[in-house]
C-alpha cells in the first residue's frame, strides 16, 4: 500500500515535471520568436539608417574631379558590349549599403548611322567595390540630339537664346550643364538645356532642371517655355 502510494506520488512528480518542461519549451519558443522579430526590426532600422536621401551634386560635375564616381562608372560599363556610354556629368549620389550614382551620359549603339541619346544612368557600387548599372532614363525625347559638344559655350546661337531667356529668372541661378537637343516649331526653334539650379539664398541646395528655351524665327527674342525638375532616383 505504501509502496503503491510512493509510486503514484513519483508518477505525479514526473508528470508535473513534464508539464513544466512543456511550459518551459513553449516559453523558450516564444522568447526565440520575440528575439528573432527584434533582430529583424533592428536590421530593418539599421538598413533604414544606412540609406540616405539623394543629394544633388553641388561641387564639380566633371568625372575627372570625382575619382570614386569615375571608377564606379568605368567598372559598371566595362562589360557592356554593342553600346558606348560617354559620361558628361556626375549629377547626384546616394549613400546606401554602398553608393548609388546618377550620371548624365551620352549613349550610342556601336553601329553605323546610329544617333546618340542623352540619358540619366544610375550605377550602384556595393561595399566590395563591385558596380553595375541599375537603370537608365532617356532625356530630350522628341528632340533632335545635339551631336556636337555638350557645352553651351560651343553653340553661339543657343547660348545667346539661353542668356536672353533666363535673364529675367530672378532669385535663382541657372548654370547650363549640357545642351541636349533642338526641335523646329512653326514659330521658331526650341532648345533643351540641362541646368543646375540654385536658389540665391545662403546654404541653398541645388537641383537639376531641364530648361526648354524658345527662340523666335528672327532670333531677336527668346523665352523660357518650360522648366522640368529632375527627381533623382525616380
Question: Any descriptors?
Answer:
234 residues; alpha+beta; five-stranded antiparallel beta sheet; 10 strands; 30% helix; 40% strand; globular; disordered N terminus
Provide an overview of this structure.
The protein is an alpha+beta fold and about 230 residues long. Helix content is about 30%, strand content about 40%. The protein has three helices and ten strands. Strands 1-2-3-4-5 form a five-stranded antiparallel beta sheet.
Which SSEs are present, and which pair or pack?
Blueprint (H helix, E strand, L loop, with lengths): L1 H48 L5 E2 L10 H11 L5 E14 L1 E12 L7 E10 L4 E8 L5 E2 L10 H11 L5 E14 L2 E12 L7 E10 L5 E9 L4
Structural class: alpha+beta
Q: Report the major sheet.
A: 5 strands, antiparallel
The helix tally amounts to 3
If you compute it from the alpha carbons, what radius of gyration comes out, rounded to the nearest whole angstrom?
31 Å
| Beta strands, count | 10
The low-confidence parts are 1-49
Could you give a short description of this structure?
By secondary structure, this protein is an alpha+beta fold.
